[in-house]
Amino acid sequence: MHQGDGVTHLNRIKPATNAIFNIFFLVVALACFLPIIFIFVISLTNNDVIRRQGYQLYVTAETFSGEAYKYLWGQRQTILHALWVSVYVTVLGTVLGVALTTLMGYVLSRREYRLNGFMAIVVFIPMIFGGGMAASYMVNSQILHLRDTMWILILPLAVSSFNVTITRTFFRTTIPDEVIESAKIDGASQFTIFSRIVLPISKPVLATIGLFLAFGYWNDWFQAQLYISSDNLRSLQAMLNAMQNNLAYLTKNPTALLSTASDLKKNMPQESVRMAIAFVVAVPIACVYPFFQKYFISGLTVGAVKG
Amino acid sequence: MGRTEGKKRRTELAPKKRRRWTKDDTELTLLSLPTFVWYILFCYLPMFGVIIAFKDYKITPGAGFVTSLLKSDWVRFDNFKYFFGLRDFPQILRNTLLYNVAFIILDIVLPVLFAIMISNIYSKRKSKTYQTLMFMPHFMSWVVVTYFVYAFLITDKGLLNALIRALGGESINWYFEPKYWPYILIIMHIWKSIGYSMVVYLASITGIDSTLYEAAVLDGASKFQQGRYVTLPSLKPIIIMMFILSVGHIFSTDFGLFYQVSRGANQPLTPVVATFDVKIYQMLTSNSVSLGKTAAASLFQSVVGCITILIANGIVRKVDRASALI
User: Is B211's CB within 8 Å of A4's CB?
Assistant: First the structure.
């Protein structure tokens, strides 16, 4: 046992303080987590009850209704298609992003590379200056013609200089130069070194970058809001967002009796259904993040160390 | 002795700098090529695209975008003048800066306080559970968070009004009352980021040498004095760093927070929720504002942002060279 343990043990906060801290954090933690339970409860509540009494904190046998999920099941084609878009964009984007990021990270970690300084500047400048939302929009839609394509959901988010720096630092600190030198002496090309030596021993940083990217893609709604107008390219987040926008439109123009407005109203899913969709979008992440939390924290600390 | 060593190193380095292009260099160039192209397309093209901010962009019939752009008239700073002359420009500037000041202060005070408190809880298992639960909002998109907020705030059905009514008060029309929104947005910002930022400080607290605390105990320091004289001074470098970095980003805001949570930043909430990012987005999606004007607004934000980051970085270099960006 550690010698200091005795002192550390004596040096604790008072039991009463400990109890207060525990209660405090219990309240904060619940405030962070309960909203998702709350929308689940709403999604299971009968719509008549919602209309009469507002949202309920709990659901009883009388107020329970599975109609929201039945409705979703009826709409499964739309939902599953949106889910498919989400999954497709997330998987493809993560794979592409990890590849592009680690390739550049590896090249930057090779100090003997002739263009190292140049590439470092190419990666560095976007960290402090960018063309801005308008110029990017213009380039993406007018020059690259990515509007309303799957690629606009994938490409712009694939690389970030922050992630490149994380991988570069990781390669520099964990892969001994001798390993690469000896591989070179054995006649290995840089491609072989990268794919056979560097990638296999870099799993922690690949996991970290991959998770950053995967969560970023899964949660992205902004690209779709700006660039996507066709329904078959709507991801789950974009679908949820579009629903929210339609609703905002209706509340903004409550008297609008235009055909579009009443059409919107007719097609607008009920309260419980909207909450059910929000729950369906949120729950996969709420279930998986506890397992990946440590990679996020390690990415955060790796990122803090500069090479 | 030092001088001869330096000389020796220089002579060793010199031929390296002039060395020939090798097969290695070719292979590394090929490896970095895809990412390099990505950077050109998605970072550097938009940077040159900012010339549109100095143009009165008009579509030349039959010509492509680039030709039209080149053929459009130069208008110098007219687009910028338009942006600065907007009636709501002072409001947007004020909102952007004030929200960021509030975030900068709270993002340091609360996470540091929370991290110190949670590190003192007896049960490590409980502490881990709290941390995990508090991390959840970080992984939720603003769209989903908007539904959470909606469920609390919507006038007739929301939980908050039910609570107010139960306590004998009157329902509040939250989405039409600008005066509450600064608080709502600040609370939502903290709610979403607290778990994550607490962990940053917690990581440094666990890294503090335990003998420092032992020495403090032997000197008769209370738990509070230990926090004041051991923990806080040990956290000082990272606090300073986080502070300066966030000051560097004082002109940019989280678009999702301001636009989504307020459900589109519409009237009557606009005066209190519109920041630079919201305004630029609104200009971009409006049919009545020309692309050049929007580009000017967004270039202005980029330039002042770049300046503040460089200044912040200069200060970081003075404080702690190793943590500087450049």
Answer: yes
